[in-house]
């Protein structure tokens, strides 16, 4: 052994071949600061050793290198601008020094080679991948761009167009596609990877492969004439703007950087990359997207830990209530391999539930994501029934009947009589108190809420609601079942609306008052979609939710939290509901819905809605975009803070992920708590105080005032 670090070692084998092996202490290899230091030290040892004729780089783990250590980013990115630039510049130079070794180098790639791991392979002269490999530069998903030479080496290896597509989408490539695009030189079976890499390296040492010419090409300007460059980068700019829009600066920066660096050599191009990376690292979007990554890791880790503690395995599920929601839940269980019994009291509902599952599968087949075998096995896993006797042996029952506490209570009590003593019973309710529903059961310890979001197959979140008497064994088993269904579980405590709907309805209340004060709902939607970044503005979202559902839920919230959520007199939502304008479900709400000439869904602002509101609203006037955002977002932020203060949700990170996965909170803002903290707690307090006279939903808690005064972070409380 000629070098031994904490994350990698170098052995000198026969024929002058050195083997550099990444083998970090954890389960995967990452480019943390320790590994970068080890690589630099190893490179210096290799450069000084006259016996070395070539280097083989490989991983001792089942995957190559998964990328940088994201946990280090928050601290690094908080440094002053010049220090961030110095750090990325110093780190990228480590890869340069490795690339400049005076002999050929080859990477043997297995499993994931992402981000810095991909950039390590690019610093080598040759790359051999096995069939398990996935290679890519996903930094855009963190609001960043490659910082260790990726924007320089990849375009020179596979062409600017291909490289930009890799980097601006962040999608990795399987080995065969990477080979076809020129990112790797060969693909072999896993058991032949080291042998193949060794053989290619020996050929390079022998002069059969011109490794020096390859290296020179990577270090030279891009081989594009002026017209080619203009066409390539103009097209890329247009595509990036169409796909990423204005809220995500990273893909735009990549195009700009590669365009400016096209005529430069490696060192000049790397300086531009360093500057672009450092600039992106200080953006709110990067902080938000890195925050999402870390929050997602926390949620996943917590879910796995809870699932591991489960004492009961869910081998068969039952869904009670076979409408659109029940059919969606049944599909989700069945498609992930858990047989499900779908029960209802009438055949028409069962037919609707089966149709829902078949429709989802049919659309999947049209897109090429579902094959005939998957469709058949999924539908065979769903057994419809009208009889309670069919559910006697199931492990988990998910009640998904109408959102009415009396009806749900009756169904839950009946269910308990027909299942075994250890069957877990859940209610898919969006607002009704789990503690209240638990009163219908003799064994409330085996009961909890399991709130799915519509459409079930698309929405990743499941809120698991713990009641006062719910056992931890029940929670663990339901978390495990949720993960098996391919969903993200977040456990919350019981309260009206739980977490997601509790923070959503103050947002709707802020919107209603804005309309009553003379705002145009179309203008509000435009601001909240185009400027704030929601996938739907509040009027459009209410149309999708349904005015009947929204009005009912607001009544539940009003009853449960009367001090802040009293129903608003002549609320536009209630006016629409009473006029039977239910939204998309009957094609009329705030908007009128139809199909255009091509059969695509279309919506136009409904004159009928304006007429309905006019007698109850102030004269129409324009509102500044900042006021619109403040008046709808302050109530949501306030209620999220109260949920954290009351222990409804365990951490700010989980609250952020719940709103991201359950409501589509704009990812570039990072979640509700990241949004508040990006604004600055003191600034948020001042903004909320400005609108405090509008009512209780705008009035902040003493807790947030104290947090702002002491300059604390809600994310520090999450640790």
Automatic annotation (TrEMBL):
Catalysis: reaction(s): a 4-saturated-(3S)-3-hydroxyacyl-CoA = a (3E)-enoyl-CoA + H2O; a (3S)-3-hydroxyacyl-CoA = a (2E)-enoyl-CoA + H2O; a (3S)-3-hydroxyacyl-CoA + NAD(+) = a 3-oxoacyl-CoA + NADH + H(+); a (3E)-enoyl-CoA = a 4-saturated (2E)-enoyl-CoA
Residue sites binding substrate per the record: 296, 501, 661
Listed GO CC annotations: fatty acid beta-oxidation multienzyme complex
Single Gene Ontology MF annotation: 3-hydroxyacyl-CoA dehydratase activity
E.C. number(s) listed in UniProt: 4.2.1.17, 5.1.2.3, 5.3.3.8, 1.1.1.35
GO BP annotations listed: fatty acid beta-oxidation
Chain spans, region Enoyl-CoA hydratase/isomerase: 1-189
Binding, NAD(+): 325, 344, 401-403, 408, 430, 454
PROSITE patterns found in the cross-reference section: 3HCDH, ENOYL_COA_HYDRATASE
Keywords, comma-separated and alphabetical: Fatty acid metabolism, Isomerase, Lipid degradation, Lipid metabolism, Lyase, Multifunctional enzyme, NAD, Oxidoreductase
Protein name: Fatty acid oxidation complex subunit alpha
Protein species of origin: Paraglaciecola arctica BSs20135
Taxonomic lineage of the native organism: Bacteria, Pseudomonadati, Pseudomonadota, Gammaproteobacteria, Alteromonadales
Gene responsible for this protein: fadB
């Amino acid at each position: 052994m000629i070098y031994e670090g904490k994350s990698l070692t170098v052995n000198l084998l026969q024929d002058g071949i050195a083997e550099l092996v990444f083998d970090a202490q954890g389960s995967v290899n990452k480019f943390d600061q320790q590994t970068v230091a080890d690589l630099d030290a190893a490179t210096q040892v290799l450069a000084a050793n006259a016996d070395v004729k070539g280097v083989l780089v490989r991983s001792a783990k089942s995957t190559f290198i998964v990328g940088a250590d994201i946990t280090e980013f928050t601290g690094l990115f908080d440094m002053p601008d010049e220090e961030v630039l110095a750090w990325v510049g110093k780190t990228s130079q480590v890869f340069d020094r490795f690339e400049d070794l005076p002999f050929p180098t080859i990477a043997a790639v297995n499993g994931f080679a992402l981000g810095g791991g991909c950039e390590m392979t690019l610093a080598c002269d040759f790359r051999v991948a096995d069939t398990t490999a996935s290679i890519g530069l996903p930094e855009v998903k963190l609001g960043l761009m490659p910082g260790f030479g990726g924007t320089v080496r990849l375009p020179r290896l596979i062409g600017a167009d291909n490289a930009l597509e890799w980097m601006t989408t962040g999608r990795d490539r399987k080995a065969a596609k990477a080979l076809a695009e020129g990112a790797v030189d060969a693909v072999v079976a896993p058991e032949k990877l080291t042998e193949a890499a060794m053989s290619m390296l020996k050929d390079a040492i022998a002069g059969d492969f011109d490794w020096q010419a390859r290296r020179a090409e990577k270090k030279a300007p891009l081989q594009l004439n002026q017209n080619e460059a203009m066409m390539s980068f103009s097209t890329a700019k247009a595509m990036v703007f169409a796909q990423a829009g204005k809220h995500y600066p990273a893909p735009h920066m990549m195009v700009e950087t590669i365009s400016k660096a096209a005529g430069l050599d490696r060192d000049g191009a790397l300086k531009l990359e360093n500057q672009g990376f450092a600039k992106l690292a200080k953006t709110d979007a990067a902080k938000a997207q890195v925050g999402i990554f870390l929050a997602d890791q926390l949620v996943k880790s917590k879910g796995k830990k809870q699932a591991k503690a489960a004492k009961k395995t869910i081998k068969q599920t039952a869904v009670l209530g076979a409408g659109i929601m029940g059919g969606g839940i049944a599909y989700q269980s069945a498609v992930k391999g858990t047989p499900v019994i779908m029960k209802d009291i009438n055949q028409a509902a069962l037919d609707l539930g089966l149709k829902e599952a078949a429709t989802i599968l049919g659309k999947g087949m049209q897109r090429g994501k579902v094959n005939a075998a998957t469709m058949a096995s999924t539908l065979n896993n769903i057994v419809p029934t009208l009889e309670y006797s069919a559910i006697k042996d199931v492990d988990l029952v998910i009640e998904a009947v109408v959102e009415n506490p009396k009806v749900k209570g009756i169904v839950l009590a009946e269910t308990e009589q027909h299942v075994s003593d250890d069957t877990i019973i859940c209610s898919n309710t969006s607002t009704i108190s789990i503690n209240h529903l638990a009163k219908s059961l003799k064994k409330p310890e085996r009961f909890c809420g399991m709130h799915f979001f519509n459409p079930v197959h698309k929405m990743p979140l499941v809120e698991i609601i713990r009641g006062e008497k719910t056992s931890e064994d029940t929670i663990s088993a339901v978390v495990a079942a949720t993960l098996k269904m391919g969903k993200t579980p977040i456990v919350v405590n019981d309260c009206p609306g739980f977490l997601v709907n509790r923070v959503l309805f103050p947002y709707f209340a802020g919107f209603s008052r804005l309309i009553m004060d003379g705002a145009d709902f179309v203008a509000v939607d435009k601001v909240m979609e185009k400027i704030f970044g929601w996938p739907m503005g509040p009027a459009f979202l209410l149309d999708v939710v349904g005015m009947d559902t929204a009005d009912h839920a607001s009544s539940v919230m009003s009853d449960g939290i009367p001090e802040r959520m009293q129903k608003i007199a002549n609320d536009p939502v209630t006016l629409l509901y009473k006029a039977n304008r239910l939204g998309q479900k009957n094609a009329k709400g705030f908007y009128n819905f139809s199909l255009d000439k091509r059969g695509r869904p279309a919506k136009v602002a409904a004159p009928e809605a304006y007429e309905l509101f006019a007698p109850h609203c102030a004269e129409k006037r324009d509102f500044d975009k900042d006021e619109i955002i403040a008046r709808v977002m302050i109530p949501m932020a306030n209620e999220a803070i109260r949920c954290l203060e009351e222990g409804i949700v365990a951490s700010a990170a989980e609250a952020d992920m719940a709103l991201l996965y359950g409501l589509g909170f704009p990812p570039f803002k990072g979640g509700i708590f990241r949004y508040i903290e990006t604004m600055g707690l003191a600034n948020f307090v001042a903004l909320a105080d400005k609108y405090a006279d509008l009512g209780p939903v705008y009035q902040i808690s003493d807790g947030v005032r104290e947090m702002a005064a002491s300059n604390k972070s809600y994310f520090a409380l999450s640790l």
